[in-house]
Structure formats: C-alpha cells, structure tokens
Design brief:
mainly beta
Amino acid sequence: MARRELDPFGAFNFLVEIDGITSAGFSEVAGLETETDVVEYREGNEEITVRKMPGLRKFSNVTLKRGFTTNTELWNWRKNVMDGGIDRKNVSIVLLDEAKGEKIRWNLRDAWPSKWTGPELKGNANEIAVESLEFVHEGITEMKTA
C-alpha cells in the first residue's frame, strides 16, 4: 500500500550523525524535548490576574542506546570529558521514510557526552549487550525535508 502524505513515520527508521558523519547504528533515541520556563508578572495597578510570559528555554538531555561493539570512538569522546576536556560536537538525529529518504532532522548544537552506561551482563540471558550515552546540548532545531 502506498504511503499517504499524512501517515505518521515509523519510529524504528532513523540514524545518528555526529559532526556530519553517520555514526554507529543506534537502537534507541530518547529525550528530544524542549521546554520554556513561565515567568509570572503583575503590576500593582492591574487586576488580580498574573501575566504569563516566556522565560528561559531548556533542552533535555538526549540518550542514545546501541549494541556494545569494539568501536571505542564514543567511549574515547566520553573519556576526554572525564579527563577534563570538553569536545563539543553537533549531533543530528535523522528520521527516515520507508525508502530510507531523510524526512526530519533534529540538530543538537554543541553536544557532549555527560554520562555513559555500560551493558547489563547476565549469565543466564540471551540478550544483546547494550550501552547508552547521554548527551547535553545547547539547543535543538528541527528541519523538515520535502
């Protein structure tokens, strides 16, 4: 069946780019959120109603999960932060359509890994070892493609 223009995209078809380079395959992305603080204000001669104005913007941390591999590129980036260096990079999460064409891109500005979580190891399980990396960033933009 052909895709209709207003059909939602599948959440399973995405890729992650770090500084424009497609990085290791991730199985999960969470935390694409923005929030604006509400500033309440009232002048003394106004009615007893508070005005609500936009305040500071906040961006949630973004968590990426992937199967654990021998590729140490992301670990080395995290280790650099632990050692006191902050290497900020631009990270993009790209949602694809069924034909693997780019549809939406969320760009995280000046991101760096603030947390790494290693895999849970269980001797009696038959699961993939999964690691996660949590990024802080200083802004998110969304770009839609035609």
